[in-house]
Design a protein that fits this description.
Chain A is of the alpha+beta class. In chain A, 39% of the residues lie in helices and 19% in strands. The relative contact order of chain B is 0.15. The chains are: A alpha+beta, B alpha+beta.
Chain lengths: 491, 246
């Protein structure tokens, strides 16, 4: 934490830099007046990636492996979203049965390992030790020490997801696998058999993780109004309205549960989504076009998916979904901390789905590549990544070279929601208080609920705001030059 | 030391040679590996990459272009030469745009394999980040000059084996670059064919087939299974049997 006085107004600025136990680098700033009343609370994304720009000029078949380097946690999601777009570019509309099963299995492994990582490694310390627990123990090492069984279950769950990824892509992180129109190798029967031997424990631990979240909710009444806010929700659902992580139509709901749209073809996403750029963050602010910038922001990710779907195809996760939805008298659960519970329901769904796919005789089939059709100039792939709906959109020229790329990454969609959550928590818990580490951790808990991946999400090249500070050897500011998102310079 | 007829000594090991053989030929025939990137069995050597430089009778020479001489004392596997070879490999990396993590050639790339062989853990030198044109005008093959190491294998194979003369190296020194011998300079206007040796010989990811990204799974690529030294020695054996070149 750093604290400094703003010269112009006499107000005090507090920065949490970096925000901890999230992926990527960001900071939270608070602006307080002399009586410690919150004037402003913001999440700033301070790193810049720019993949949208430097994928331009590359061959389209390179794209899935180029863009998966966006992230070390969810590279599979980026690879799969890009692969779906690349299939279209290669003229393939329908994969072989085995290829689609392999991609789905790969995706379930990805979501399972990412969700396990987030809950057990990053967020469980907040709940097991309390938001104000000793900061030196409020981490996975502390959990290992005090709750070794829970910690080890989390570590093994993540490992299992990574083993699935490795079996299909050759590596636990940044492997290969998808090729235009299919997959590059079958799943070896001995790998399948080895994974199946672990299923009983994986299912049991996933169910226990759901139950742990239910217990946390039941025993911490204060969680129910922690950054709770009615919002719009966006996600894919399958054609029957069931939870769908790999492929489906877009569904959005109003805060009261009413449908904004349903089964919308994601290839037409530009008709319903826009992105706004603000000067103080590298992260864009998407919104639903029909509701406008002010009202059109929405949430994505586990909470949105569980709120949006009508049911879940796998029985244990469906029972867990019903239990979760029952905590709200309304149609939807708006608790921001409900993200964690929803995330574990999805992890259970992934575990059940993995078991089904591993027992499917077709999963070890050898018919992996569909016949290509005519090359197309545009491809759009959308997938439900662990953190939410992920859009990959590419345009290519006649020679197959990418001319334009647009990525709307899950964390980007939650940008406004994270800032709103910060504002609510800051006003609820910090306003007028003497600021302490415990109170500041409340802000991080609010951001952490969304499992933001900040390194995935920052690509607004050419629009990025920039601030250059010239300081003397004592650290005093001599001159500041600021480039706004419209390119104007102030200084 | 006793001088044997038609024998050179590489790191003290006596190796026979025949008239007209280079140090490289003699070494490979004896299954002794001298690191190289631009040498290829059956093609005229060019001495471009300098990785095969050895110390022969007190002089630094390229093993691929220097004739073996009776009684020659050659130092190959020394700390000094290994350090120099690593430095050359690092320079080859920084002079181009070799982004292994997203390169289709990764695992099948001789430059990458050489880096591993020489224990290269970082690039050491500042990146050039050159702007070099990518040519995707050919229907089946594309040319990514950013990855070209100017080994000249495509030039020689196209001229000597394919008899097409599709490629050439133009410019000198830092301006040297791979060009296509067509009026437009475009690969699409050449008669390069996917079956040509020139289309298949690139040791890095500069000449690649279009729309075939990442078909070979991790674990099944050439250098996932073997070191570059073993692959090179095997290539030589195949060439001696007449199975190599095409």
């Amino acid at each position: 934490m750093t604290s400094g006085k703003s010269n112009e107004s006499g107000m005090r600025r507090i920065a949490i830099d970096p925000v901890t136990r999230v992926e990527g680098h960001g900071k939270i700033t608070l602006l307080l007046d002399q009586d410690n009343h919150i004037q402003e609370a913001r999440l700033h994304i301070t790193e810049f990636r720019g993949f949208e720009k430097f994928i331009q000029g590359r061959p389209y078949w390179d794209v899935p492996f180029f863009v998966q380097r966006l992230c070390g946690i969810c590279p599979v999601s980026h690879q799969l979203a890009a692969a779906k777009a690349v299939d279209q570019l290669a003229g393939v509309d329908q994969l072989t049965s085995t290829a689609e099963k392999l991609r789905r299995l790969l995706h379930f492994g990805q979501v399972l390992q990412s969700h396990a990582l987030h809950f057990f490694h990053l967020s469980s310390p907040d709940f097991l030790f309390g938001f104000g627990g000793d900061p030196l123990r409020r981490n996975i090492m502390g959990v290992l020490e005090k709750y070794p069984e829970i910690a080890m279950q989390g570590i093994k769950l993540r490992k299992f997801g990574q083993q699935i990824i490795e079996a299909i892509t050759g590596k636990r992180v940044h492997g290969t696998g998808t090729i235009p129109g299919g997959m590059n190798k079958p799943l070896a029967p001995d790998r399948r058999d080895a994974l199946l031997t672990e299923m009983t424990a994986i299912l049991q631990w996933s169910e226990q993780a759901v139950e742990l979240n239910a217990q946390i909710h039941a025993t911490h009444a204060e969680h129910a109004d922690f950054a709770t806010m009615p919002t719009n929700y966006l996600s894919l659902v399958d054609k029957n309205g069931e939870l769908e992580l790999y492929h489906g139509g877009l569904r959005a709901r109003y805060p009261d549960g009413g449908l904004i749209f349903d089964q919308f073809d994601y290839c037409d996403y530009q008709q319903i989504l826009r992105e706004e750029v603000r000067a103080w963050s590298y992260l864009k602010f998407p919104y639903l076009l029909q509701l406008g910038e002010a009202q059109g922001w929405y949430r994505v990710g586990p909470l949105a998916r569980i709120n949006n779907c009508d049911s879940i195809t796998t029985p244990r996760a469906e029972a867990a979904r019903k239990q979760f939805k029952a905590i709200s008298a309304d149609n939807l659960v708006h608790d921001t901390l409900g993200y964690h519970w929803a995330r574990m329901i999805e992890m259970l769904h992934c575990a059940e789905s993995i078991q089904i796919l591993l027992n499917d005789p077709g999963i070890t089939g050898a018919d992996l590549v569909a016949e290509k059709g005519g090359r197309r100039h545009e491809g759009i792939g959308v997938i439900e990544a662990p953190r939410g709906t992920l859009f990959h959109h590419y345009q290519v020229d006649d020679e197959g070279i990418v001319t334009r790329a647009n990525l709307i990454v899950s964390t980007t969609s939650n940008n406004q929601a994270m800032n709103e959550s910060l504002r609510i928590v800051a006003n609820r818990y910090l306003d007028g208080q003497e600021i302490t580490e415990t109170l500041l951790n409340h802000l991080e808990v609010a951001v952490r609920a969304y499992d933001p991946c900040l390194s995935c999400a920052t690509h607004a090249l050419g629009k990025m705001p920039l601030q250059v500070d010239l300081v003397d050897t004592e650290g005093a500011l001599i001159h500041r030059l600021v480039k706004n998102s419209d390119g104007r310079l102030n200084g | 030391m006793t001088q044997l007829k038609d024998t050179i000594f590489i790191d003290g090991k006596a190796i026979g040679f025949t008239e007209g053989q280079t140090i490289m030929d003699a070494a490979l025939s004896a299954q002794v590996y001298i690191p190289h990137l631009c040498h290829y069995p059956g093609l005229t050597p060019s001495g471009n990459c300098r990785l095969c430089v050895v110390e022969a009778d007190g002089r630094m020479v390229a093993a691929c272009t220097t004739a073996a001489r009776e009684g020659q004392q050659v130092s190959n596997n020394t700390a000094e030469l290994s350090a120099a070879r690593k430095a050359i490999t690092q320079m080859l990396f920084v002079e181009g745009n070799h982004i292994c993590p997203s390169c289709e050639k990764s695992g099948n790339c001789k430059l990458q394999a050489m880096g591993y062989y020489l224990g290269m853990l970082e690039e050491h030198y500042p990146q050039f980040n050159p702007h070099r044109a990518l040519d995707a005008s050919h229907p089946d093959i594309f040319l990514d000059r950013g990855r070209c190491i100017l080994c000249g294998l495509c030039v020689r194979s196209s001229h000597d084996v394919d008899k097409k003369n599709v490629f050439a190296i133009a410019g000198r020194g830092a301006d040297a670059r791979l060009i296509v011998n067509t009026v437009s300079g475009k690969l699409g206007d050449s008669n390069l064919d996917v079956g040509d040796l020139a289309a298949n010989i690139c040791p890095v990811g500069a000449i690649m087939f279009k729309e075939h990204g990442y078909v070979t799974p991790i674990g099944e690529r050439i250098y996932d299974r073997q070191k570059i030294s073993d692959v090179a020695l095997n290539e030589h054996v195949l060439e001696q049997k007449g199975d190599k070149a095409r």
